[in-house]
Design brief:
196 residues, alpha+beta, Alpha-D-Glucose-1,6-Bisphosphate, Chain A, domain 4, 5 helices, 6 strands
């Protein structure tokens, strides 16, 4: 039993020594803030993972609540329900909703699709498309669906980008609140002075 325990201990010690735990580190290049080091290690894929809480499909995704572009899209399109909202798939699809149509002979409905091409707040990071469904005499058998081009696409994109920019600015102000910037001043105090 004693020999077995010694062999297990030696195997454990050898396996740990191969992990690079005792790697020399330059103190000038390493942050003293624990959260910064953890974030850097996560970006580089370092650390120990026992597979708890992982999806079987794999992949890593940020939380949707931290993505300003996603949050802005949800806020701008909150007037309609969503048929599909997949953060990992990068797509938002609304349900069909009635648009204003003065003539009573046709029933016109629209559907908005937002595709996220990037997590960055940029004009080419979003693709907006509109689909139109027109049913004659409110008969579901006589409906035609087609993709349309409209100025509404650009208006929605602009509204989302503006909202995302405001959310990013608010997040940065909250994140930097209380951080010192020389001579005891903080960014929050600087922003408050600018507002006045």
């Amino acid at each position: 039993m004693k020999k077995f325990s010694i062999i297990i201990f030696l195997l454990f010690f050898i396996s740990l020594s191969n992990c690079g735990i005792y790697k020399k580190v330059d103190a000038r290049k390493t942050s003293v803030n624990v959260n910064d080091r953890v974030a850097k290690n996560m970006e580089e894929g370092r650390g120990i993972s026992f597979g708890l809480g992982k999806d079987k499909a794999g992949g890593t995704f940020d939380f949707a609540s931290s993505n300003e572009l996603w949050r802005a899209s949800m806020d701008v399109l909150d007037f309609v329900t969503f048929a599909n909202a997949s953060y990992s798939g990068g797509i938002l699809i609304t349900d069909w909703f009635n648009s204003d149509n003065k003539s009573g002979e046709k029933n016109r409905e629209l559907k908005i699709t937002v595709r996220f091409l990037s997590n960055e707040i940029r004009a080419d990071g979003l693709e907006i498309s509109l689909h139109e469904k027109i049913c004659v005499n409110n008969n579901s058998n006589s409906c035609s669906i087609k993709k349309i081009k409209s100025t509404l696409e650009n208006e929605i994109k602009l509204a989302i980008l503006k909202k995302a920019t405001r959310l990013r600015k608010d997040t940065n102000i909250k994140r930097n609140k209380g951080k010192s910037f020389g001579k005891g001043r903080s960014l929050f105090k600087e922003n408050e002075k600018k507002k006045k």
